[in-house]
Fold this sequence. Notes:
Elements: H1 2-26, H2 31-60
Amino acid sequence: xxxxxxxxxxxxxxxxxxxxxxxxxxxxxxxxxxxxxxxxxxxxxxxxxxxxxxxxxxxxxxx
Length: 63
């Protein structure tokens, strides 16, 4: 009886692990999406960061 229950529990755990593996595989970004993210980062975040830094540097120039 307990062996039968243990087998059933192990089978359910295997099924759950397979489902988790499939879910994790589908969440990865493809290579084109990574390239788009990098491009947008340089195009938008880079100039924004440079603008903020140059704005902050004007406060230290008044010496």
